[in-house]
Specification:
Elements (H helix, E strand, L loop, with lengths): L1 E3 L2 E3 L13 E4 L10 H10 L2 E4 L3
Antiparallel strand pairs: 1-2, 3-4
């Protein structure tokens, strides 16, 4: 995995090319109302975040 101005990039380092995990963006403005306030506040300060989705 590497990161540059265009974002995160994944490359298979051993064996044949495989399926890559997807990146998921989360906008804190779209969190459900039931999300805990501490989570909403923390993510709100970060803005839109990205994570690798679980397989």
């Amino acid at each position: 995995m590497s990161h540059d101005g265009d974002g995160l990039h994944t490359v298979c380092v051993e064996g044949s090319e495989d399926v890559k995990p997807e990146f998921v963006s989360t906008d804190p403005a779209n969190l459900p109302p039931a999300a805990p306030a501490v989570l909403r506040d923390g993510l709100g300060r970060l803005g839109v975040t990205r994570r690798l989705a679980n397989l």
